[in-house]
Amino acid sequence: MGETQRSTTSPPPYTTQDGASSPAPKQYPIPADIKPSNYIQILTVDAVRGVWTIDPGLTPPASLMSPPQGKEDRKNVLIESQDGNINVDLFVLPSPNLEQSKVSLKLNSWSGSACIRVHDAEPQNVSYTRRPMDIFVKASMKKADVYIPRSFKGPLQLVTGKMGKVWYSKAVKAQITPISAVNGTHRCFIGEYRLSDWKDEGKSWPGDELQVDAKESINIYYDDEGDIPTKDTSEGGCIVM
Q: What superkingdom heads the lineage (predicted)?
C-alpha cells in the first residue's frame, strides 16, 4: 500500500435540476504502487488501515480466494475487525459490463469505529462505466464516518443507538431528501429523487445504496470535501496511507 495524492483543487461547479450549485463528480487517478484487486476479505482481531484499488471486473483464481462468509454473496470488499478501528480508502474502477452486479463494500467493526472513503477512480478504458455501489458499514460500539463520491445517488438507511446522532456535511445535506426518522432509523434519498424514476413496485433499487449502523454518531460526507481534518487512526479517523 502506497501513498495517495489528493487534489486540493475543487472541481468546477455544476447546476442541479433545482438550480443549486454543486461541484461536479470527480474521478481520481489510481493510487501509485497499489495494484487493482477484487474480492478482498480481511477478518481480524486487530485494527485495519489502508488504501485499495478495486476493479469489479477482475476475478482472481478461485484457489486464491477465501470462501464467502455464510450464505451471503461474495463481497468486492469485506473487512471485519473484532477489537480495532477500521480506516480505509477504496478507489473503485469503472468496468466494461454495466449489466453485472453492484459493487458490494462491507465494513464491520465490532468494538471500534469505522471510517470509509469511497472514491470514483479514473477508467482504464473510456468505454468502461461506473457500476452502482452497495455500501454497508457497521460500528457496533462506536461511531461511523462515511465519505461517498459525488456521483452517489440512491437511498440511505442510517441506524444509531439511543444516544447516537446522524450528521451530514453541508454539501451532502443540500442533496438529501428526508423520508423518515423513527426509533433511531433514518431513511432518506441522496440525489435528485424526483428524477430517479424509482417507483419500487416490488423491484429492488438498481442504483447506489448505503446502510450504516453505529452505536454512536453517523457522519456522512462527500469524499472530496477538503475541510475535513486528517485524524489519527487510534481516534477513529481516516489517515491516507
A: Eukaryota
Per residue, the 3-state secondary structure of the chain, as one string, reads CCCCCCCCCCCCEEECCCCCEEECCCCECCCCCCCEECCEEEEECCCEEEEEEECCCCCCCHHHCCCCCCCCCCCCEEEEECCCCEEEEEEECCECCCCCCCEEEEEEECCCCEEEEEEEECCCCCCCECCCEEEEEEECCCCEEEEECCCCCEEEEEEECCCCCEEECHHHHCCEEEEEEECCEEEEEECCHHHCCCCCCCCCCCCCEEEEEECCCEEEEECCCCCCCCCCHHHCCCCCC
Query: What pTM, to 2 d.p., does this model score?
Result: 0.82
Q: Which residue has the cell 432509523?
A: 185
Residue 217 confidence class, pLDDT cut points 50, 70, 90: very high
β-strands 176-182, 185-190 pairing = antiparallel
Cell of 92: 473503485
Q: How many Å apart are CA 59 and CA 51, to the nearest integer?
A: 19
30, amino acid identity = I
Instruction: Name the strands in the sheet holding 48-54, side by side, starting at the edge strand that comes first in the sequence.
Output: 36-37, 48-54, 86-92, 114-120, 144-148, 218-222, 166-168
Comparing CA positions, the residue from 115, 109, 118 lying closest to residue 218 is 115
- Main-chain phi, psi angles of 234, to 5 degrees: -65, -15
Per-residue pLDDT reduced to its tens digit, 72-108: 788 999 999 999 999 999 999 998 875 668 999 999 9
Compute CA 24 distance to the chain's CA centroid, rounded to the nearest angstrom. Answer: 18
